[in-house]
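Anyone able to model this chain together with flavin-adenine dinucleotide?
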Amino acid sequence: MQERFGWRLGRLRLAAPGRARHPLRMVRAREAVRGRVALVGNAMRTLHPVAGQGFNLGLRDARALARLLEEAAWDGADPGAPERLAAYARRRARDQRRVLAFTELLVRGFTSPLAPVAWARGLALGLLELAPPARRALARAAMGLA
Ligand SMILES: Cc1cc2nc3c(=O)[nH]c(=O)nc-3n(C[C@H](O)[C@H](O)[C@H](O)COP(=O)(O)OP(=O)(O)OC[C@H]3O[C@@H](n4cnc5c(N)ncnc54)[C@H](O)[C@@H]3O)c2cc1C
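re: yes, here you go
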């Protein structure tokens, strides 16, 4: 790293004695809620970082859960009631499915050594380059603004 990064930050040292490897892949909890427990963010799933979507997805989980808890507070209802948490899981399922599918598509598209996949990837990137509105729409979708 020192050789590649240079000395802009001085000598690079290991902060911890050992190094660990973490596979970059999707890991998904079987259940988003159980009993009075609800998962958000990476506790619910981790994504490959290729699309930069994990944190955004976690923020949307937190917002959805906060809204449900706020509604419960207004109604004077039990915030941890199973049906309320089940509603949270349902509200988050579609967004999660969409982002997981998009991320997996990118992972496969960018890691496949198959020539037709590489060709399709180049074509898709070239078309995006030629179509700024499509590029903006994709960026908005990736930012969760679509
Ligand atoms: C290389 C890389 C690049 C990424 N780039 C992007 C990006 O561009 N855009 C994007 O949206 N997302 C990106 N992500 C994903 C994003 O970093 C994560 O989705 C996000 O940080 C998850 O936040 P979180 O709070 O859910 O979990 P975490 O960030 O994992 O936070 C969990 C915290 O809990 C602590 N903890 C764990 N167990 C315990 C315990 N038992 N007791 C107390 N504390 C505990 C951990 O130490 C940690 O601080 C990237 C991820 C990687 C690896």
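The mean pLDDT is 91.
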